[in-house]
Amino acid sequence: MGKIKNAVKNYCPLPSLILFIFAIAAGGVLLISELSVGFSDFFNRYISSFFRGVTALVTCLIPFSVAECVIVSLPVIIIVIIVLCVKCVKKSMRAGVRYLVGLSSVVAYMFSMFVFTTAVAYNGSSLASKLGLDDAPVSVDELVAAAEYMIDKMNEELGDIEFVYGQSSVMPYSLGEMNQKLLDAYDSLSDKYDFIPRLYSRVKPVALSEAMTYTHMSGMYTYYTGEANLNINFPDYNLPYTAAHELAHQRGILPENEANFVAFLVCMESDDPYIRYSGYMNMYEYINSALYSADYETFAAVYQTLDVRAVYEMYAYNDFFEKYQDNAAADISSALNDTYLKAQGQTEGEKSYGMVVDLAVAYVAAMKGE
């Protein structure tokens, strides 16, 4: 026993030992969460929200995206790690082992943070059950009803929206103002639904948004920094909805279809017409895509009822996205994201984003009392 203690003392620094113990505890929490939905909901709402809140609060003080800096610096970080490893190994076996143990403890820390901030949320009860919605496969008629609902709501907002003639809409304020409006809407929504915690944070604009667009990513939540990162290269009408989506992840709504729907609810909750328009327009596009796949003739008939300004908006988006459409970066990003989502129990992978349509249809039916 004494030899083991001495070996641990010699080769495992105390901070590393603490991080390994932390990781073992995280593994236990993850296992329990996979066995108990109730435990997952409790842990996500009260424990994970604390960890997410602390990381978000710390990085919120930094004006730029910490996650972006880490990702961009990865090649340099990897080189430094290798150089230091070689130096330690050359110095002595003990120094080399301690270095590798320390490196392993960093990986253990990343795993622990993933569990405590993110992983448990995937094992909780569904958003549909929390909202009392019937999340079931939908018919063409139900898709039509949902599409028409979004169109009607969009039309109510269009009079207050500024457009470049024959092109896309223009967000009438800065990203900072948009962020505050979304936080206000989230606070209002959290008063209605206690599973959404209050949290002060801000969306981080990605400096390399142009390059990020080639990956087809409009935003990204990074658990290790607690940041909701926003690709600001996309057209304005995408920005509030995408920001609301990433802020939903930051509040423990992890499945993509659920984050999409919470983003929609937040946009509707806002007292700002442009944010509401962003929510209705983005949700219409999801429903529109599903209707196109289900029944083209019906899709075409509904599409004809769109206000010409909304049509121009979609045309402008298609023109914008054309140069980013097909490239290797998008294929790699899509494959990685698909693999990650499936590993977290979202069996549909990237298709899960579009599954928000089921929630939207159920919501519209509930609003109409059907």
**CA-based shape:** globular
Mean of pLDDT: 91
The computed structural class is mainly alpha
- Distance from N terminus to C terminus (CA atoms, Å) equals 69 Å
Alpha plus pi helix count: 16
Low-pLDDT ranges: none
User: Percent helix among the residues?
Assistant: 55-70%
Radius of gyration: 23 Å
- Number of distinct beta strands: 5
Reading the helices and strands in chain order gives: HHHHHHHEEHEHEEHHHHHHH
Share of β-strand residues: under 5%
Quaternary structure state of the chains depicted: single chain
Q: How many domain modules?
A: 2
The side-by-side strand order for the widest beta sheet comes to 3-5-4
Largest sheet: 3 strands, mixed
Structure, described:
- By secondary structure, the chain is mostly helical.
- The chain has two domains: 122 residues, no CATH class; 241 residues, no CATH class.
- It has 16 helices and five strands.
- The strands form two sheets. The chain has a three-stranded mixed β-sheet with strand order 3-5-4. It has a two-stranded antiparallel sheet with strand order 1-2.
- Strand 4 and strand 5 form a beta hairpin.
- The termini are far apart.
